[in-house]
Amino acid sequence: MGEIGHGGIEIVERIMDPKEAKEKIKGLPQVPIRSQIANEVIGIAYGFFSPLQGFMGKADVDGVCKNMRLANGVLWSIPIVFDMSNDEIQQYGVKAGAKVVLTYTDNPMALFEVEEVFEYDKEEMCQAVYGTKDPKHPGCARTYAYKDKFVGGKITLVNRPKINPPFEPYFIPPLQMRQIFKEKGWKRVVAHQTRNVPHTGHEWLMKGAWLQAYGELPIDKPYVGVLVNAIIGEKRKGDYIDEAIILTQDELRKSGYFGDHNHLTSLTFWDMRYAGPKEAVFHAILRTNLGLTHHMFGRDHAGVGTYYGPYDAHILLESVKNDLAITPVYSMNWLYCPHCGEVTSEGLCNHKKEWQKFSGTLIRSIVDDGVKPPRLIFRPEVFDLVMECAEKYGFGSPFVTDEYLQKRTPVFVIPPLQ
Amino acid sequence: MAGEKYPINIWVNEERYEKLQKAGLASMCEEVLAGLKVIKVYADEGQKDEILKKYPTAKFDSATTKSIELLPRKVKDQIFDLVVQKQSVDVMDEFLKNY
Q1: For residue A13, how many other CB atoms are within 10 A of its CB?
Q2: Residue B1 clears pLDDT 50, i.e. is over it
Q3: Which residue in chain B is spatially nearest to A301 when comparing CA positions?
């Protein structure tokens, strides 16, 4: 029996042998894809999105929108769709039964076996997934930007992505990840979802979740790990640059705030939808496939603006817990208490009037003002690395700028098919 | 809520601290977060909205700190200079009129 993923279904990598691939794709129409779709091809092919075998057909999209389930009944919260314009459909001869090659960075990436071409009401999709039709919601904006039709069908990777430095060691697909967990002897692993450089509030969220997950396990050796799983996808101006995020997360281990025995950093390619509760369910599915047993969910998980209540994600997760093979760990905020002289949990400390809350945004504002935050708030090794990343990767800034977006080295490319 | 005020945190780096000391205003700094010096300049609801509209990179941290963050450094320098000039943190009216 292989590795069992979400929905109790075996995880199968959909990756073709390169020699076979060259023959299989010969003469097929080549369809260029954008980065969002390339990220999702990787998600499907390596099993991050198991049990999906390809882009969704209408029955799956309908099931996800109306019942939060795939057509086969498995829980799923966000449509994974491939959109095309009518002109492109005609140009590439896309129809049920056709095969096309998806290309990225000008090279063949995946075989797409088309099963159906269909339309779906985008407003309906937005309302179902995001709980709003507001085009200002970034997930709705993405949905409205989809082209005329959707194409469903199976995906098989024909050419593995080349992950560029410094990201390469952090790309650990589900089957490989599960092997690493076995080698480390971890019986429980708790996921930390992030798109941020860690301050000590994040560090303590992880430490708190580690303690929560440890529970009744014996302490003769470490049986619990934290997996930082950074979401790498579309960037917005003002975000921390990807290089700073991934390297500083790992720095917490390298600098001894964690260790090899309890901490690992990795990435998943995904363009955030900011779907709040629905995205929380999606993250739970993703991390189930990665082999995790627990998942941290804080306040307003994957939310944006004021579209969702702070604990909506927790409520939705509770309602579907029997369909998930991962245990949610709900995290309270950590803050600085000058009376205690330490970072503490709002669930523990009672010096409420003295509490000093801090956030990623606040830390960014401190860094922007040219001030080095105290080590209790932001680890000096993390600060130094952020500054190093600014010089090395960020064209002088740790935050995404127009120049970074134009000139950065892509996280991955598809090399020529050998 | 009527009358609510939202802080703009001007973090005091060495350069700013030197200016404050020269003006005899070093005591204006509050110390927060385990040793950080900050000057808090407050904006009311209308001023907050005006600032966020005028400087699109700025963000109101509604979830955690209820403060206006990520104003461009240059803008914060201007607010800071006004604080030093006026010897007061009550400068937002004048700042929004003149800058």
Answers
A1: 15
A2: no
A3: B63
